[in-house]
Design a protein that fits this description.
The protein has 162 residues and is mainly alpha-helical. Helix content is 61%, strand content 6%. The chain has five helices and two strands, in the order H-H-H-E-E-H-H. One of its GO terms (molecular function) is metal ion binding.
Length: 162
């Protein structure tokens, strides 16, 4: 299920990025909000990847004072989606249930299993794509539905025949 969840996340992230790309300069506030949400999303993904790898935290907080360009975020998200997809594909028992202890960016201690961390990344992305979707609605920019059910039926159209 985690492997498919990361396929879904990559699909939904791409659809969201395509919709954001339709924002014009007249909607600068909406573009800034969407960019900030993506920036936060990828920083959190970087932080959890470092925890899964046992590496030092690559960021001191979950946001940055300067927002990267949308093209940079698009590349970083694609690389992150590829990494998480590959990681989820090779993770299995008993490693998926291994607890990893770490320190959150706010200094609080935490402990989660590897599969809980992966679930968090999928869920976290869904939350922020929803906020971006609302901003796109307010800006009058249509965006595609990116729910799991839409993904399943888009990638496996034969399910519509069942």
């Amino acid at each position: 299920m985690l492997r498919q969840a990361f396929q879904y996340k990559a699909w939904a992230d791409l659809r969201t990025l395509e919709a954001i790309g339709r924002l014009d300069t007249a909607r600068a506030e909406s573009l800034r909000f969407a960019t900030q949400q993506l920036n936060h999303m990828i920083i959190v993904e970087d932080l959890f990847r470092s925890r899964l790898e046992g590496a030092p935290a690559p960021h001191a907080s979950t946001n940055t004072p300067r927002l990267p360009a949308l093209d940079e975020l698009r590349e970083r998200i694609a690389r992150s989606d590829a990494w998480y997809g590959a990681y989820a594909a090779r993770l299995g028992p008993p490693e998926e249930d291994e607890t990893v202890s770490f320190v959150f960016a706010d200094g609080q201690r935490g402990a989660m299993s590897r599969k809980e961390m992966l679930f968090h990344i999928v869920n976290h992305g869904t939350y922020h794509r929803g906020a971006i979707g609302h901003a796109l609605d307010l800006a009058g920019v249509p965006h595609p539905a990116d729910t799991y059910t839409v993904f399943i039926h888009a990638t496996e159209p034969q399910r519509r025949q069942a």
